[in-house]
Amino acid sequence: MTNEPYFPGLEGVIAGETAVSTISGGLRYRGYSITDLAADSGFLEVAYLLLHRELPTEEQFADFKAILVESSWVDPAIIEFMKSIPLHVSAMDVLRTCISALGHFDPQLDDDSTPANIAKATRLLAQIPILIAARHRLRHGLPLVAPDAELSFAGNLLYLITGREPAPLFEKAMDVSLVLYAEHEFNASTFAARVVASTEADLHSAIVAAVGALKGPLHGGANERVLEVLQEVGRPAAAEAWVRQALAARRKIMGFGHRVYKQGDPRAVILKEYCTRLARAAEDPSLEQIADTIEQVVRDEKGLPPNLDWPSARLYHYLGLDVDLYTPLFVASRVAGWAAHVIEQAENNRLIRPRSKYVGPGDRSFTPLAKR
Ligand SMILES: CC(C)(COP(=O)(O)OP(=O)(O)OC[C@H]1O[C@@H](n2cnc3c(N)ncnc32)[C@H](O)[C@@H]1OP(=O)(O)O)[C@@H](O)C(=O)NCCC(=O)NCCS
């Protein structure tokens, strides 16, 4: 075993099979290209596709939406508990804890059959926006807003947070970001979810583990760090000097690089277009100018293209959202992909339990405590 090859960070390792998505030859969810899905479908259709394996018919879609409307409810005990969490705790940490609490109230918690897992995942899709918005509004001393059954998923998400119906461009931009965040094969958080599911633990436990994995800045947490970087730069004229200095100091520029996409992240290209449109609508090109300069220098100097978190941070900023909501919004979308993987793992399970390469001390003779 000690001489077996191993790959730090499991880089390049095929760790399992999936029919949920592929990144070979462009990102596809169950065979459909993200370019087509982003242009012509919406997040809820994509969530249906991920959970039910096929795009919905109009009737199936209407039923799915009706279930989501019915499930748009969180037990008041969770909201009361949320009020007791100190205000300095990040939105992402609160969301992780409250998703765990949702499990306590779920009528099918320990049923890991596929229909029960789809039902639980559908409830989570409806409940997570309520949790995100509730924490945000409580923190700002604002009254909670009830979901509006007439709005799209993206429209409702923005409405729950801001209390205002979004303009069509804002709604579409949010929707496209959710479509693009929904699924990405064996990324760290999805793999974490599958490891938990492989022990035959429940779906909520797997999702909580995934949220924990997503929080880190090398994964979903990057979108919040990206905006901090752009704000640190401040103005277009300062961007080039800032990025050259950061690279010289061997600082990692958040929103660049990817473990798998070495030639570029196709999702980033799609979302950048929406950033351009939103900046034009805001009549303020400065953030796009800062981003373009940083992008050019990082590409020239390091050969690194931007990943999805690079444009998504700007996009959420244009939508007027607080920075600490960015990674929770990623959760609101990726929960669909995570759940699809949990279902797939449960249906064809084998405990995920790899080996490690031991690099600790050799055999040592034990000395009892009293003699040490
Ligand atoms: C995503 C990420 C973890 C992938 O990392 P990885 O596959 O392990 O790649 P490595 O960290 O081995 O990087 C390879 C080289 O590129 C450099 N690099 C990678 N990402 C970089 C970044 N964002 N800024 C500057 N340099 C970077 C590394 O320093 C390394 O350079 P070296 O060979 O001179 O040491 C990494 O690119 C990163 O940390 N990006 C920033 C965080 C981020 O945006 N995360 C969201 C991912 S969707």
Structure, explained:
The chain is mainly α and 372 residues long. Helix content is 59%, strand content 2%. A 3-stranded antiparallel beta sheet has the order 1-2-3. Strand 1 and strand 2 form a beta hairpin. It starts with 20 loop residues before the first strand and ends in a 25-residue tail after the last helix. Bound molecules: coenzyme A. Coenzyme A binds at residues 218-219, 222, 252-259, 302, 304, 307, 309.
Question: What's the short story on this structure?
Answer:
With 372 residues, the chain is mostly helical. It has 16 helices and three strands.
Radius of gyration (Å): 22 Å
Class from secondary-structure proportions: mainly alpha
- Run of helices and strands: EEEHHHHHHHHHHHHHHHH
Ligand set: coenzyme A
Helix content: 55-70%
Q: Give the helix tally.
A: 16
- How many strand elements? 3
**Looking at CATH, which topology of the largest domain would you report?**
Citrate Synthase, domain 1
Query: Mind telling me the CATH superfamily name of the largest domain?
Result: Citrate Synthase, domain 1
Beta-strand residue percentage? under 5%
CATH class of the largest domain, named Mainly Alpha
Biggest sheet: strands side by side, in what order?
1-2-3
Q: Biggest sheet: strands, sense, closure?
A: 3 strands, antiparallel
- Shape label: globular
